[in-house]
Amino acid sequence: MSLRIQIILLILLAIGLAVIINMVRKRDLELKYVLAWLFADIVLVFLVLFPGMIRSISRLLGIYSPMNMIFFLGFLLSLVIIFTLTVALSKVTANVRRMSQTIALLHKELQELQAEYKTEREQESDRRTSWDGSK
Amino acid sequence: MKKLVIIPAYNESGSILRTVQNIRNNAPSYDIIVINDSSKDDTLQICQDHGIPVLDLPVNLGIGGAVQTGFFYAFRYGYDIAVQMDGDGQHDAAYLEKMEETLLRENADMVIGSRFIEKKGFQSSGMRRVGIRLFTVLSGVLFGKPILDATSGMRMCSRRTIELFVKDYPRDYPEPETVCRLLRKKYKVIEVPVIMKERESGESSISLNKSVYYMIKVTLAIIIERLR
C-alpha cells in the first residue's frame, strides 16, 4: 500500500467517522444501530495504518490472498449489519401495529365521548330555553 | 355473557352492510365491531352512516393485524366470546348459535366453522383445497389433531383464547398457524359443519400468484410453531 492511498483512505475514514458521529449528535441516527458501523470504521483505520496486519490475519485464517480476506470480512460484516436491521425492523413493525390498534380504540372512545358531550350540551340548552319560555 | 362479532374489512363497501344485517337478524345477542383496515373505498363512511360500531386503523395492518385489533377490543371491554367473521358475506351468522352452544357445552377454546365436515356449499377452488388438505395432514402429524378446515375465517374464541391472541397474532394468513398454536398449548379446538357461500364482492386476500408464497409461509409457520 502506497503512502498516498493510505492517506486518502485515512481521510475518507475520518470523514465517515465524523459524519456518523455528527448524525448521532443531531439525533438523526440511533447510537444503538450505529455501533456496528463505528466498529467497522475503526477496524479499517487500523488496517490502513498497519497493512502488515492484513497479511498476518489472512495467513492466520488460511486465506491465500490478503485481498480475498478483505472482501470476505467486509462481506461478513455487511451481513451482520443487514441482519441487525432486519431484527430492528421486526420490532418496529410490532410496535407500529400495537400503536395503530391503540389509536383505533382510543379514537372510537373519543368519538363516543364527544357524542355524549354534545347530547348533554343540547339537553342543557333545551332546558334553558324552556325556562326562558316559562318566564 | 358479552359476545362480540369481529369483522375485519378491507375494501368491503359492497358487502359490509349485508354482512352486518345478516348478523343483526340471525344473532341479535352479539355486539358487532367492524375493523376498517385503512380501506381505500368508503367502507368507513358506510359503517358510520349506518351506526355500525367501527374501529378505524390509521395504517393498513393486514388481515392478522386487523383481526387482532378486534381481539384487543374484546379484551379491553371484557367480552367472554369473540367470533371472527369475514366482511365479504361468505359466512352465515345463522351458525353462530350452534357454534356458541358447542363452545359452552364442550367448554372449548375455539370452535371453527368448517366447510369440509359435511362437504356442502362453496368448497373453495381445486388448488386451494389441496393446500387445505396439506394443513389437515400437518396439524394431524405435528399436533395430533387433524383440522379439516384450518383456513376457515369463521372462528369462535373463548376468553382464554382472546387473551392469547391479544399477546401475539401473525400478520398475514393467520388462521392455520393460530389453530396450531392452540393445539400446541392443549387448548380445546372443535370443528362444526357450516355451509359457506362464494364471496359476493371484493377480492380475496389471497390472489392466485400469491398462493405459492402463502403455502410456503404458512407451512413454515406451522413447523416453527411445533418448535416453540
Walkthrough of the structure:
The complex is a heterodimer of chains A (135) and B (228). By secondary structure, chain A is mainly α. Chain A is built from four helices and no strands. In chain A, helix 1 runs antiparallel to helix 2 (31-49) and helix 2 (31-49) runs antiparallel to helix 4 (66-134). Chain A is rod-shaped. The model of chain A has no long low-confidence stretch (mean pLDDT 87). Chain B has a single domain, classed as Spore Coat Polysaccharide Biosynthesis Protein SpsA, Chain A (Alpha-Beta Complex), CATH 3.90.550. Chain B contains eight helices and seven strands. Chain B has helices spanning 16-26, 43-49, 62-76, 96-105, 126-143, 159-167, 174-184, 211-227, and strands spanning 3-9, 31-36, 54-56, 81-84, 110-114, 155-158, 189-193. Chain B has a seven-stranded mixed sheet with strand order 3-2-1-4-6-5-7, with helices on both faces. In chain B, helix 2 links the parallel strand 2 (31-36) and strand 3 (54-56). In chain B, helix 3 crosses helix 6 (159-167), helix 5 (126-143) runs parallel beside helix 8 and helix 7 packs parallel to helix 8. The termini of chain B are far apart. In chain B, 49% of the residues are buried. The model of chain B has no long low-confidence stretch (mean pLDDT 90). Chain A binds chain B through residues 93, 96-97, 100-105, 107-108, and chain B through 35, 53-59, 61, 65, 68-69, 72-73, 76, 171.
CATH topology of chain B: Spore Coat Polysaccharide Biosynthesis Protein SpsA, Chain A
Query: How many E strands of chain A?
Result: 0
Helix percentage range of chain B: 40-55%
**CATH architecture descriptor of chain B:** Alpha-Beta Complex
Count up the domains of chain B: 1
User: What's the mean pLDDT score of chain A?
Assistant: 87
Q: Give, in order, the helices and strands of chain B.
A: EHEHEHEHEHEHHEH
| Arithmetic mean of pLDDT of chain B | 90
* Distance N to C terminus of chain A: 102 Å
Question: Count of helices of chain B?
Answer: 8
Query: Which blocks of ≥5 consecutive residues of chain A have pLDDT under 50?
Result: none
Biggest pleated-sheet summary of chain A: none
